[in-house]
């Protein structure tokens, strides 16, 4: 198993475990830390889906600003509330739901009138649960169904005089951290009792059937209604305030009432008066009246148009979270390139579209859970991969930089583009230059090799700088000398001219450099240069583990022997007539220094003579015999 495969498998296993832990927590309802993100993403989906028409079966009678102004303020006297109920009852609604807490004593006459009004039609009145500040925890051995119900300290119940004439339900809602109602619990409990919610009481009375409670659902008049954890009914808002049909209580009191808005409808009476305090922020409206939120829950129960979120959808959320996490992590491991990033982007787009389509069809799949499951492993794995890749890149860059020092810059670039260069030897013309220090061997014996290494290093640096500046290639440093080619990797018309100019600059720079050396060294060291132009065979030499580029042929031998000619005649440079003619009349050798010749010279190891020119600087040179 390779290191990369092991890293990928480890990342996939850890990512799967992380996603599985979150998925199980979500399925159990223990991931409240995701609620804020889920709420924001739910609001986005609601806004994208847009407003919908509310069911015709529910009507709100609003105790609004107009009602308060005409009746002298808010809260209304019980006699006025009784009058509103009486007027509504005349048109035979299915149920009258009074979303007003009647826990205080009013006037005897008003309370009696209101109690009598409740007898006119089936009526539900509101109670409220008071919750402790501490978070509810499930105790060991406690029934899970019961333990998941909202645990209240007490219930604020309406006065018994009213409760004797109407059903009672708890009006509390479950909100997220931003205060937006997300669900309407169907059951509430204290240590002594369990109470039905206000919307459930209303829906049951409207259907004329008691609800049957099951583990994750309830059945009402033969309809199974899926419930979220804790028997909570998820809320899906229809739109802005007033989307649920609303009429003013003032018009009801005036007798100006649309009978069709009341007859055989569920009529919810509640306050929308400014400053009443019973408002909630929703994605469609920042001040949605609480009575309209309650009406929304009632409509969901009676029409079944609510949004589905229960244990089954939470299980699907968990599976999707695991799959998305493994898929993104796997894609990061598979391709860390543009293709991989595009694949990851495509997967995310497909998931978002599928999530929105499900939501628009009233199936609430979590958007926050898959992100929370997939993002940390993907980011962590991606960051680790980037770090490892950067380390690897730095390692290879260091290796490459180190290896590049063993090859000429021009050849490095050429080999990068043409890796097959010189696998087959090439015959071509080139300018060949040899340079060598004189007296270096004897200096090493007297001063020690360690002391002379710095001198040699400076000499090599000088040669390298001048050769690169003039477009040449150093094929090899030969101890205290170097072999230089002009014509690799490609030959040009300027090879001979560049070689001549390089020879001039080398002689000048080496002379100045020698003058900077300590007198004990400078007095015993010199240099010589030989240059020739002719045919060579350029090739790679070496085996499979190591190769270097070089040139061979008679022209190479001639250039090397010309250093002996320079030393014999006490000049810095001996250059063949072939190179001089090829360089042309504008050659630097004619412009700088003193050039003499040509002279026919016998070259060691060669049967025929060679026409040679001798060159030295104006200062007379620092040539030493060697």
TrEMBL record:
Domain Guanylate cyclase per the UniProt entry, residue ranges: 431-563
Keywords on record: Membrane, Transmembrane, Transmembrane helix
Molecular function GO labels: adenylate cyclase activity
Top-level taxon: Bacteria
Pfam families documented for this protein: CHASE2, Guanylate_cyc
InterPro entries hit by this protein: A/G_cyclase, Adenylyl/Guanylyl_Cyclase_3/4, CHASE2, Nucleotide_cyclase
Keyword Transmembrane: yes
One GO BP annotation of this record: cAMP biosynthetic process
UniProt cross-references to SMART domains, sorted A to Z: CHASE2, CYCc
Transmembrane feature ranges: 315-334, 341-359, 365-388
Protein's UniProt name: Adenylate cyclase
